[in-house]
Amino acid sequence: MSATPVVVTEMKFTPTLREIVNGALMRGRPILVSYVTLDEKPSVSFRGTVQAWGEGDLALWTRTQTTGIATALAKHPDVTLFYADDIMNPAARAMITFKGKARVDNSEAARRTVYENSPDLEQKRDPERKGTAIIITLESVTGMAPGEQYRMTR
After folding, report:
1. What are the residues whose beta carbons fall under 8 Å from the beta carbon of 57, sequence distance 6 or more?
2. Which stretches of the chain are DSSP H helices?
3. For residues 113 and 131, is the Cβ–Cβ distance under 8 A?
4. 78-113: per-residue pLDDT in tens?
5. How far, in whole angstroms, is CA 114 from its chain's centroid?
6. How far apart are CA 36 and CA 74, in angstroms?
7. CATH fit for domain 6-153, picks 3.40.50.10860, 2.30.110.10, 1.10.10.60, 1.20.1640.10
8. Looking at residues 57-73, what average pLDDT do you find?
9. Would you report the helix, strand and coil content of the chain in percent, each value rounded to 5?
10. In this structure, which of 23, 94, 117, 122 has its CB flanked by the most CB atoms within 10 Å?
């Protein structure tokens, strides 16, 4: 019988959660991002650049500043992100939902940090750095990973 998982309620990433987020693409599990487009339609896409930002927020790199999520956030900042891994193996299962408000950050510092912290595979898709950083201020993180259960809220 496995040990009772630690319940995490503070909006501060544990080392396990940080590793899950930052290593998602390289484990073949990019994080799913959902948002509402400018024409009021839901949009869902896998993103390989999602990364921990600070103590308890997320960031991602988008390869364009003029379409898609980069333009939609001014009107519809609410986003949901979802990660799943090993769902058929109870001992290793991870399923995590992140909800928050996203915004474009065109500052050189944010753009540089988010781009440089993105996997090389993703950097090669935007070598001229035409994209921009998106910062997600999290409102909640719910779910589970080995040894941890997340009930984090702000």
Report:
1. 100, 135, 136, 137, 138
2. 15-22, 69-72, 108-116, 120-123
3. no
4. 999 999 998 888 888 999 999 999 999 999 999 999
5. 12
6. 11
7. 2.30.110.10
8. 96
9. 20, 40, 40
10. 94
